[in-house]
Design goal:
218 residues; Arc Repressor Mutant, subunit A; globular; Rossmann fold; 10 helices
């Protein structure tokens, strides 16, 4: 069973989503939160496999809730369920650490699939949203000849080596042996990589490396 936390400030939405998900047979809703702070607290207590989070919630907005959940619980995946379909909202959510983005109008047909994909370590975007995000990304690149390089290109050569080896699953001790470095030096490089790339934990590091084409997905 995939253990899911639902976070939305509208009770009727949570109830409807819960009924749909629990009818699937392989998804169990373990808790419901009505604001962002409660979502973070319940996620910390229950450690769900997937958190389904709305973006516009009181006390703590969805984007910040995603950041905190992913910071404290890297193994908990997050799927956004929102009425907002603009690329600005989608990009913010993805940058915060969301693995999927589903529009509320498509929840009945797509949310379960998004949860399963996130649980399996895959991203999920509705094709129309994905197309918009890609178009926006390309327009930003073509808007200037001095397009910003990928974040990992700003790492030092040694940090890029450590990044790839870490993403491939090598331990700190193994990386130290492969690069003829001390474990303390490797730990320093790893910390620097995480800071420069804005990553939190091994899961995010691997996902970044895969997205950037540094390693292949298993």
């Amino acid at each position: 069973m995939i253990r899911v936390l639902l976070a939305d400030d509208h009770t009727i939405v949570r109830q409807g989503v819960r009924l749909c998900l629990e009818a699937m047979g392989d998804i169990a809703v373990v808790a419901e939160a009505e604001d962002g702070q409660e979502a973070v607290q319940l996620a910390t207590q229950l450690r769900p496999d997937v958190a389904v989070v709305d973006l516009t919630m009181p006390r703590l907005n969805g984007v910040e809730a995603i950041r905190q959940i992913k910071r404290d619980l890297p193994s908990t995946e997050v799927v956004v369920l929102s009425v907002h379909d603009s690329e600005a909202y989608v990009v913010q959510a993805l940058r915060a650490g969301a693995a999927g983005y589903v529009l509320k109008r498509n929840a009945a047909t797509e949310l379960a699939a998004a949860i399963r994909a996130a649980h399996d370590g895959q991203a999920y975007l509705h094709p129309s949203i994905a197309r918009r995000v890609i178009d926006d990304y390309l327009s930003r690149i073509h808007a200037s000849e001095d397009a910003v390089s990928e974040p990992h290109e700003r790492l030092t050569p040694r940090e890029r080596e450590v990044l790839q080896l870490a993403a491939e699953g090598h331990s700190t001790r193994a990386i130290a042996g492969l690069l003829c470095l001390s474990t303390k030096t490797v730990e320093h490089h790893r910390a620097s990589i995480m800071t420069k790339l804005g990553l939190h934990g091994q899961t995010e590091l691997v996902k970044y490396a895969i997205r950037a084409g540094l390693v292949e997905s298993a």
